[in-house]
Predict the 3D structure of the following.
Amino acid sequence: MKEEAILDALQPQMVEWRRFLHRNPELSYHERKTSQFVAGKLRELELAVSTEVGGGYGVVGVLKGGKPGKTVALRADMDALPIQDEKTCEYASGVAGVMHACGHDGHTSTLLGVAAYFSRRQADVEGEIRFIFQPAEEVCPGGARGMIDAGVLDGVDVIYGVHLWTPFAAGTAASAPGPLMAAADEFFIDITGKGGHGGMPHVTVDSVVAGAAVVMQLQSIVSRTVDPLKPAVVTIGTIQGGSAQNVIAESCRITGTVRTFDEETRLLIRKRIEDIARLTAETYGAKANIEYLMGYPPLVNDEEETGRFFRVAPGVFGEGQVSECAKIMPAEDFSYYLERVPGCFMFVGAGNESLQAVYPHHHPRFDFDESAMLAAAKLLVSMTQSYQGWE
């Protein structure tokens, strides 16, 4: 096929781009040089380029085809994580304490490869293709909302995104209709009591005891409040209080995260956390102040566009290599795009034991099979051409 030959020829370039970005990672909201790199490559392809989109370092490239048709948006994220790279390889991060530990360097390079492909077939493109390079996916409130507010989805008919995913073997792909990735919310509970001597508890209000009771009561939310047919997680990440073994602590802080797949359950859990924390603290004579941060909403794939994925992907990966994905508790701000326009978020397998690409995402030794970038590029090309109705 014509597109396969073009993309195969672009594979070494995608690897080169990815390794450059891996050596030069930038944290969320600080992707200045990364955005300059991306914009420069898009301009070399003679695309119309916008920079500093969304009040940050967002980049958008627009390719108008030689024929009329629909507008497809394709999105990649660009930010790295505050993790020290522990790999031993020539493209290891050169920035202390910062690395691409989630594959965003691969996402960016893949989308640049797709842009290069379509720039070579511009006369055949039926409609418009919009290449969205988004900053700050890793940190709430995320970069997607700013990009949307800046108009990147204006006139867009459909949007697609991929995630290179090492839990799945290279050469495979997966997605699912409806809710696929969880909403991710955070809470911070400050318990205030009355401190004092550890040997005289009767004249104090022990914030640690009150906090421990709050932690235990929060464990009942999923098991006794949430519909058992609706997946949900309430996790206590930290509990901190006190400074000495013989001092009753005046204050105690509890932090945690909540993962859900629908707004009804999401709001129900929030209310229960706030009520339980306040009332339990009062039972012990203490007070609770709750800060609750609503993070990314659930990522919900469009039914029709996910159906397109299951029709198209076997032609890229082969029969038997495409599966329906179980729900995944990590969150993704691609969810904001899917709230506005139909689309599909897809996982492309990138794990390979022989290449030591076996470590989980956000691990200091994370890496992926770079052949997955070519597969992801072919998937995005095939989805776009299928939607616009040309080959």
Residues 2-23 form the longest helix (22 residues).
